[in-house]
Design goal:
Length: 385
């Protein structure tokens, strides 16, 4: 089970497409429209994003935007066998938004369906068909959103000089894949949301952690599939002034808070994205001073200086400190402070017996960062006395 693509509902699809190209280094692949909606497709590595906006009040995008600010409306999931999964979903009471369909051009047919996810988002389910696509354009022509909506698709012909993406980016700086998608749910819904994804999609519990400081708090459960790369952390606020609660208030309910995009090199990718104008959350200097004090500190002096310069967070497990987790968080990408991206690198470390890769989701980072920010706040309060 893998993430096939992510679909954003926004106010202006073409403007959002240009933002992905110019600021996040994606490549524009196609545009499409029908009587009520306009959609653009962008891609980086194995990451596929659709962005749709309404052309009329009758658009399903317009309907979504009356209930929520712009954000993720659909996380499409690629599954091995669609029919058994649909039957399982129905047994557990999931809302089937679209029964099993088969469509597409000859030799490029696709089987798909759609179910309501937790809250007001949905999951398009696409049956995996290895070797189905001869090119990226074959993929576009069989996207369920296009097939179901009867969209007129135009493949992009962007001059290479106008695209700061794809092969023009150094391989270490390119964004390669979706690492995980984070769902925020209201207080009291975490266990029910976990149970729903276990029953309907067969996800299994992985890490669980809680973060509590004097200012904020959250409880998180990571879900993953035993036969696939999909990872879904679900967060519930643990305090009234939690950043999770702020998201829920502004989003007007549960929704996707952020998506982590994996890079071959976090340092190279973030340096490149900063050059393109992408804004990241600031990290106080005290965070890096405290980082040196953590048990098993594995960074060389040049590595430590590099991550401090680019304001990258670093985390590791005490039993495997050389398998580093590096991450940085962008500022919210829309007008309201809801959705943002995470840039992540999971470093590997080779021993004589095995190859180890960084696990986790930055639990140590979050706690250390929250504490560092609060320490800076207390210092400013003392300085003002």
């Amino acid at each position: 089970m893998e993430i096939d693509h992510v679909h954003f509902f926004v106010e202006d699809a073409l403007a959002q497409r240009d933002w992905f190209v110019e600021t996040l280094g994606f490549q524009a692949i196609a545009t499409a429209h029908n009587a009520h909606s306009q959609t653009a497709v962008v891609r980086s590595g194995d990451i596929w994003f659709l962005v749709s906006s309404p052309l009329t009040a009758h658009s399903p995008v317009a309907d979504y935007l009356t209930r929520h600010p712009p954000g993720v409306a659909d996380v499409a999931i690629r599954v091995q066998q669609l029919q058994p999964l649909l039957e399982q979903a129905a047994r557990w009471g999931a809302t089937i938004l679209q029964s099993l369909q088969q469509d597409g051009q000859e030799g490029q047919s696709v089987r798909w369906a759609a179910i309501a996810g937790w809250g007001d988002w949905r999951h398009t389910l696409v049956e995996a068909q290895p070797q189905r696509y001869k090119s990226v354009y074959d993929h576009v022509l069989t996207l369920p959103w296009f097939l179901a909506s009867g969209m007129d698709v135009t493949l992009q012909a962007i001059p290479v000089s106008a695209v700061p993406a794809g092969d023009r980016i150094h391989p270490e700086a390119q964004l390669l894949a979706i690492d995980h998608v984070v769902l925020n749910v209201p207080v009291g819904e975490l266990e029910r949301a976990i149970a729903w994804y276990e029953a309907v999609l067969g996800l299994q519990r992985q890490q669980r952690f809680s973060i509590q400081t004097q200012q904020s708090g959250l409880c998180s459960q990571v879900l993953g599939h035993p036969n696939g790369s999909i990872q879904l952390p679900i967060n519930e606020p643990a305090s009234a002034n939690s950043q999770i609660q702020e998201f829920l208030d502004i989003n007007r309910g549960a929704g996707v808070q952020h998506i982590a995009l994996r890079a071959a090199s976090a340092v190279a990718a973030i340096a490149h994205l900063r050059q393109l104008g992408l804004a990241f959350l600031s990290v106080p200097t005290v965070y890096y001073d405290q980082l040196r004090l953590r048990p098993g500190f594995p960074l060389s002096e040049p590595e430590w200086r590099a991550i401090a310069h680019h304001q990258i967070l670093a985390d590791w497990q005490s039993d495997n400190p050389h398998a580093l987790l590096l991450q940085a968080f962008t500022q919210p990408i829309f007008a309201q402070p809801t959705f943002f991206f995470e840039i992540i690198e999971r470093k590997t470390y080779c021993t004589n017996q095995q190859v180890l890769q960084a696990k986790g989701f930055g639990e140590g980072n979050f706690l250390a960062l929250f504490q560092a920010i609060e320490l800076e706040q207390m210092k400013r309060q003392l300085d003002s006395v």
